[in-house]
Design goal:
Layout (H helix, E strand, L loop, with lengths): L3 E4 L2 E4 L8 E10 L2 E8 L5 E8 L9 H12 L8 E6 L3 E7 L5 H6 L2 H4 L11 H16 L2
Antiparallel strand pairs: 1-2, 3-4, 4-5, 5-7, 6-7
């Protein structure tokens, strides 16, 4: 099975990993560890966030920090935590394909309280107690791993 990999129990071929699967819409962020792009899946039309992390030395393989991020996000599957949809390994980088969110938690907290509850992406209802409960539940999950 040269040129294939296994992800979530299914075999992925190189043809499925082609960069043409996603159309870049915008650059979301750029940092010391990689870049994040807003993209659209050409097959499903789903908007996703693709985090591209470089592989500094291909002879050493995928950095342990990338392996830790993948395993952490997979372990923390919950409605209040962003989902990792796929992982694509390229020659010099690893692409982590996440569901797309319009804003980060930091941006959400910094918005005016009246605007915060009008955000369609919030998975909480109308009250401040629901918001605090969701944040506390997400934090409690990190204590379990």
């Amino acid at each position: 099975m040269d040129g294939c990999r296994i992800f979530f129990g299914r075999v992925i071929t190189k043809s499925e990993q082609m960069e043409t699967q996603y159309a870049v819409i915008d650059l979301i962020a750029e940092g010391a560890h990689g870049v994040v792009h807003k993209c659209r899946d050409r097959k499903t039309n789903q908007v996703v966030a693709i985090k591209t992390l470089p592989i500094p030395d291909k002879f050493e393989g995928i950095p342990s920090s990338v392996i830790r991020e993948i395993s952490l996000v997979l372990d923390l599957q919950h409605t209040n935590i962003i989902r990792l949809l796929d992982v694509q390994i390229k020659e010099n980088s690893v692409d982590l394909i996440y569901e797309y969110m319009d804003m980060t938690l930091h941006e959400l907290i910094r918005t005016k309280p009246r605007d915060m509850f009008n955000c369609h992406l919030m998975k909480v209802k109308d009250s401040l107690s629901d918001y605090i409960s969701s944040v506390a539940l997400g934090l409690s999950l990190t204590d379990t791993i």
